[in-house]
Amino acid sequence: MPNLSVGVGSLARVVDGQIQERQLEISWWSIDGGYQEGDQIVLYQYVSETSFCQSMGSAVIEQTTIDAEMANASWVRLNSSMPHWVAGDLIDERCQYYWAAYVRLGGQIVACNCLRARPNWMADLKDSGISAAKLRELYLPGTHDAAAYERYAGLSSDQINTKYAITQDEDLFHQLSFGVRYLDMRIIFSPNLPNADVRFYTHHGSYILRPLVNDTALVREFISRTEEIVIFDIHGVDNLDQEPGAHQELQDLLYQEFGQWMAPADMTWEATLNDFWSSGKRLIVTYNDPNQVGAPYFWPAVKHQWGNVNTVQDLESYLTGVMENATQGQLEFAWSAMSELTPNSLDVMTDRLDGLRNAADLVNRNVTNWFRDRWSELATIVSLDFFLGGNIVDLAIAENQRRYP
């Protein structure tokens, strides 16, 4: 695995009337020879794989001389931004727009990498020991409140109700294309909204996002175009007790959307990847309602190891305890390390965290470091807000390759 990563920052704001967002973030570790005066981070235009990591013939987009503070943090935020992707793009693995390098004073590249789509990483490992591994034992990148995605639109996105509701920049298709395999979903029954034909929506708290079928279509498109295995974890089902039959109506809708790929619940969390591949049933749909357990195609929900904390220090302390439990064999089930901050009502009222984008900016590079340096061998599902601000996907792929050669 390269000793340098390229991420997309979560911060977004309006500067002089223009939106500034999606700034590239470069982090590095274990550089041969360590930091030396004159070292630079250089961003190049990506043209093709033949010129990748070759400075000759690659146009320089931006270069930053590493100072002592940057060297200590092993991280820098660039001025350059990652464009938004076209809907449905990213189904093949390639660098996205740029590649970055750690460069010595004389021009020697000592580490380089790019942000790649990872649409087929599971299938690419099919011939290794991973086929016999249990899905719940894999290291899987995840997204917290996966459907709470929305492009930053300027001042309207800075309203309190929005800045504490939106957790992702990428839609579900692009989350999956970049390697996420666990989607934390929240669904609400809202039959009284203006469109009477739509009764189920995705949401985050009181913030209604979009009709559920808009998001199921994105997951269906990804599943149909790859051989990947995906967990669609319906961790919240709200307002369904308002009307008799609403649970069954939702389950019928999900089966209509996903039926040909839905793995039956009797496969259980002990199933191996090969079990899913050989059956062709590659979508695990969970349903977090104990009264609905027993429905043949709906699995028990993934257990969230969620600290409900609002500082980086408290999150680290909580996750340290979770990993200690994992070491002691106390987490013998499907679980996710929920690696995000949770503002309380006072935080929202006072805007202490300046929204979830800023909260993710405080957290993600720390979470990446914790799981790379301390917890890689114990990780199963790791879920983030604004996941491209961390390096969890590459870490997960590398660790799975190590576990299952």
TrEMBL record:
SUPFAM superfamilies from the UniProt entry: PLC-like phosphodiesterases (SSF51695)
Entry-linked InterPro entries: PI-PLC_domain, PLC-like_Pdiesterase_TIM-brl
GO biological process: lipid metabolic process
GO function terms (MF aspect): phosphoric diester hydrolase activity
Protein name: Phosphatidylinositol-specific phospholipase C X domain-containing protein
Species in which this protein is naturally found: Daphnia pulex
